[in-house]
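Quick one: structure tokens for this chain, please?
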Amino acid sequence: MYEIIYENIEEKKEYEKVISNVLEECFKEEKLTDSKLYITITLTTPENIRKINKKYRNIDKETDVLSFPMFQKDELDEKIKNKDFLYEDVLGDIVISIDKVERQAKEYGHSFERELSYMVVHGFYHLMGYDHIEEKDKVVMRKKEDKILDMLKISRD
């Protein structure tokens, strides 16, 4: 279902537990548990995520999370509807800056677990074809993200 890659940061079981719990809930909620969809999550430094952001999005600045989906939303919706998962397929890649997660958790006054959980669920829904550019789309995406975090009993406190 997923692979975690550590790029220039220390491996921690805490990260893996959070990621596993969130992705398990996401896959259940989206009825993907029997799919052969696969996600790669890279945990990295601000410098590395900045390089990736510049290379793939032409934005030369650090960010918290990047998502690289392999499907268009309508294509993925069709695969899910038809249960078209005969072979292992990559849903996409998520890249998370652990330093940025730590800073944002402090800035927003909530736990590291909550911030990392949010980054994972946010990245997951980008892979599922959701975005937050238009307000109406943002409302849909936030509702899905909040539902996962609520089911996991992960609050902003």
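The first strand starts at residue 2 and ends at 6.
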